[in-house]
What we know:
Blueprint: H1 2-27, H2 30-47, H3 49-63, H4 69-95, H5 98-104, E1 107-108, H6 110-117, E2 123-127, H7 136-142, E3 147-151, H8 157-169, E4 173-176, H9 180-192, E5 196-200, E6 210-214, E7 217-221, H10 224-232, E8 235-244, E9 247-252, H11 264-285, H12 305-316
Parallel strand pairs: 1-9, 2-5, 2-8, 3-4, 3-5
Antiparallel strand pairs: 6-7, 8-9
Helix pairs in contact: 1-4, 2-4, 3-4, 3-12, 4-12, 10-11
Amino acid sequence: MIVSYSKKIAYLGARMGVETGRLAVRFLPRRWLYRFSDALAHFGFYFVRGFRQRATKNLAVALGDQLDEAEIREIVRRSLQNFLRDCMEIAVALVLPAEQLRSEIPLYGRANLDAALAKGNGVIALSAHLGNFFLIGTRLAAEGYSTHVLVNQPRNGHFARLMDHYRLQVGQKTIHARPRQDALRELGEVLKRKAVAVLIADEHRKGSGIHVPFFGRTVLARRGPATMALRTGAAVVPVYLVRNGETLKLIIEPELALVRTGKKQAAIRENILSMTQWLERTVRTYPDQWNWMNIHWQDTPSGDVAAEKRQVQRLTS
């Protein structure tokens, strides 16, 4: 009963938050809203200890040999700041017409997406929790592409339908990741219609998957994007929406060269490795725009474990 009540409160709070944000965007200068979100990020960095500790630890493991302690702390702080700005920009997108979105968010690499779609098997837009990943489908839809987004829906049915409703308002059709067989079937149908399916594929956590190298360590990468690409013949095109100062830009890279012959499991592994290498290159380019919470390292740290723990404690104290 208590759990059910708390879910209803969370649902109501999310709805009020989005509606309040949409109302604020209509009447307040955006710079005020962004300053407000930056202030929240400043306090959140110091008071949300769990985020700070987890993100700092993962960043220190990945890039600690290249960054000093001050640089690591600053990247984690900016990562949170960028995420809260992302949320504010969702409210902005709810009130902007498509023409204004196209004007405010330039697109680079459209020819790459058009060339991949011309092959006739649809496109998996490979992305990550990087920049404003929430609005990738919105910006593509504003350009005229039929766009669907695969999401892990919340357990609360009311909350899930609310999020589907808001995504649809900003041009994104939702595919639920569960049940898995339904998701695979729907993804297949979308790709048969030569549409674009956006997959956020960078959650390296416990569970099933394939072990691959990432920042010199090992993570467990999901098979989904590689399996779907082989099953449907769809092209895999990296797409990400990153911050460029005070504005955003959508970058569409050339299609990834996938292995599509030989033994299936070997091909899946090679393709997952290729996708993970793309992710590492991109995160290295935009380290303060990636969510460093999504990594669960599968191996033990090399070197002095005690020294690594002391470094993390210093960074998060």
